[in-house]
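Shall we go through a protein fold together, starting from nothing but its sequence? Please make up or recall a protein chain and show it to me in full. Go ahead whenever you are ready, and we will take it from there.
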Amino acid sequence: MANTKSSMKRIRQNERRRLRNRAIRTAVRTAVKAARAGEGAAHSAAIRGAIRALDKAVTKGVIHANTAARKKSALARRLAAAS
């Protein structure tokens, strides 16, 4: 167990960040799954939403920029193939 004040504070900070990161990561996964499953006009809106969620996650440091780029590229390929 942590002994010093600073280590106790670090534990609290890490827990807050872990919960925030988990919430953001879950939102990204949900958006990407919805974008993959959609069809028609709603499909392009879902893809735009997923790309926005990915960009936000990168900005907050939750996922790596290359991971987001790879997922966005895959979504764009699906959109191009559908249209």
Summary: The two ends are 57 Å apart (CA to CA). The chain has a mean pLDDT of 93.
